[in-house]
Amino acid sequence: MHGFVRQLMDVDIEVIAPGPLPTADVTVLAQPPGGHTELAEEALGNGSHVVSLSDALNDVEGLLKLEELAAKADRSVIVGAAFSPGLSCLLARHGAKQFDRVDEVHVARMGTGGPSCQRQLHHARTQEAVEWRNSGWVKRPSGTGRELVWFPDPLGASDCYRAALVDPLLLSASFPEADRITAKVAATRRDRLTAWLPMMRRPHKDGGPGAVRIEIRGIQDSVQTTEVLGAIDHPSSVAGAVSAIAAEWSLLGVLPPGAWSLGMLDNPLPWLQELENRGISAAVYEGISGT
Amino acid sequence: MRALRRAILAMGVGTVVAAILRLRGSGGVPPRQGKWRQLSGPDFR
C-alpha cells in the first residue's frame, strides 16, 4: 500500500478500512484476498473504475465475470494488477508478440510482497493448481512438478513447484491455442514441509526481493523457438507501480472498458516502458537455459 | 495393546517415508550457457 501511494504524486488518495465504499473515480482493491468481487461490483455501482491486486483464484474468477457489468457501465475492472499476476502477464504478452504461434507459456515466480501476500501464498501451496492443457483446464496437486528455474541474477536458480496461482487463468484468454499454460512458485524444503500447517511465525513486513521468469515456446518463422523473459525487484514495489499506472491511466480514460487482466492487452509495451521509467526493468535471457 | 503399538509404529514409519519422499533431492543443476540482458529501446528488445 505504501509503495502504491508513493507512486501517485498528484492524486487525492483515501485509504479506507472495510465498509461502504465512498464515491471515487478509481477504486484500488489492495486489501487481502477475498471479497474483491463484491467490492468491485459496489464500486462499479458508484461509477468507479476498479483496480484489483488480488492473486486468489476465487477473486480473479469472480472479477472476470464482471465483464458485462463493467462494459455496460463503461468502466474498467483491471484484474491482477500486481507482480505476479501483473508484471508476469505483461512480460508474457510482450514475449509472445514475436511468435507466429505460441504453444506453451510457463510462468515461474519467486518471493512475496507484504504479510497478506505471504499468507495467500502459504494458502496457495495447499490448494489445487490449475493449468491449461490442450484447450482445457486440469487440476494438479500443489507442491508437485518440481522444476529448477533460473531467475535473473543475482537470485539465480531455485526449485519451483505447482501452487494455486492465477497466471494461467489470466493468460489463457490471450493464448487459447496454446497447449500448455502453467505457473509455479519457488519453495524451500521448509516451505514444502510446513505448507500444510498454520504459519509458524508472523509474516515479514516485506518479503524482500523477488523475481518472475516467463518461458514462451512456439513457432517463429517456421522454427521452434523458446523465449525467456524475466524481471527482478521487490514484489511489493512492482505491485505498487503496476496498480498506480492502472489507476492513473483509468483516470485519464485511456484504458478499455470491461473486466480484463494485463495478460489480455493487445499492446503491453506502453506499460513496460512506463514501468521502466519508474525504475522497474525487465530482461531477456540469451543462451541455453535448460530447465 | 499390541495392535495399537503396531499401528503407531506403522504410522511413524509412514510419516518418515512420506517426509523423505517429499523432501528428497534438490533438482540438480541443468546446463546453462548465456546471460540475462536488460530489455531496452523503443521496441523493448
Can you walk me through this structure?
The complex is a heterodimer of chains A (291) and B (45). With 291 residues, chain A is α/β, with parallel strands linked by helices. In chain A, 31% of the residues lie in helices and 29% in strands. The longest helix of chain A is centred in the C-terminal third of the chain and has 18 residues. The model of chain B has no long low-confidence stretch (mean pLDDT 81). The longest helix of chain B has 22 residues. Chain B has 45 residues and is an alpha+beta fold. The interface between A and B is medium-sized, with 30 and 22 residues.
N-C termini distance of chain B:
71 Å
The structural class of chain B is alpha+beta
Question: Which chains have the largest interface?
Answer: A-B, 30 and 22 residues
The biggest beta sheet of chain A reads: 9 strands, mixed
Number of extended strands of chain A: 13
Shape designation of chain A: globular
Mean pLDDT of chain A: 92
> Any idea what the radius of gyration of chain B is?
25 Å
Q: What is the first-to-last residue Cα distance of chain A? A: 35 Å
State the major sheet of chain B: none
Give helix and strand order of chain B, one letter per element, not per position. HE
Strand content of chain A: 25-35%
Query: Looking at the chains present, what oligomeric state does this protein adopt?
Result: heterodimer
Instruction: List the uncertain runs of chain A.
Output: none
| Average pLDDT figure of chain B | 81
The helix/strand class of chain A is alpha/beta
Runs of chain B in which pLDDT lies below 50 for 5 or more consecutive residues are none
- The total count of helices of chain A amounts to 10
- Number of contiguous helices of chain B: 1
Number of strands of chain B: 1
Shape of chain B: rod-shaped
